[in-house]
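Trying the structure run again after the queue cleared.
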Amino acid sequence: MEKLTPQQFSDAASRWSDCRPDMIRIEQLFKQNSVFNLYKSQIEIIKNRNNNDDFCVQIGVTENDELIMIPVPLDAVGYPVSLSEYYYSSFETLNEDLCLTEKLTYTVVKKSVLSTSMRTTDSDSDVFLPIYNKPVLRQEKALDAIESWQNNAFDWFYAEQANEGREIFTKFYVPKEKIFEVQEGVMFISVFGLKFSEIYQKQLPALIFISAPDNLSNQSTAVDSNTFDFAKPCPPNGQIFDLG
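Done. Tokens:
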């Protein structure tokens, strides 16, 4: 894992903030078919310092013009917790196929009526569909958002140039549930998506976290779903602080 000093962290956040009104720089940084890899070791570092339902991933740019994602713990109010060093993930090309899994459980309830004469008078059955609880994300929604980003990301960036990129994200807020419960031998692939926000009535970027065996392990893990909730972009969400 690569790491940054506090000053390098601040500089990286500022570089990305400065890139937002520059479409040429954005096209250079956002390479198609690329992802961030988030490892258990990175999660453990911020998990022990996080005191919030969410944690933050700051987007930055290194001195070598590399787009990076930097996990940051939050305090109870939502402010960043200072660290002596910050471990980051690079935006790298996805080299292997990524499998999204989802187990659907349907409940069938059968009912029969036995009359007072000990004969069956009625019989039927009801099928109850699966219930989705956050932060598990329906596979179809995740795939639609990911493909929308692949097809329309630069159009979205161009549209945001109308206000000089001020509404382009600098960071994302990520629900800690499931992410902080990561098992040994498991990592997360962080993928950009694009989805419609009912609140803001427009398309907004998202980060989708997909669990997978890490590069150093052949361990397989049984899960109901390996695709988790959209991380919320800031701006427009939760502009409590600005690391950039």
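Residues 128-136, 216-223, 240-244 have pLDDT under 50 and may be disordered. Worth checking whether this holds up in the mutant runs.
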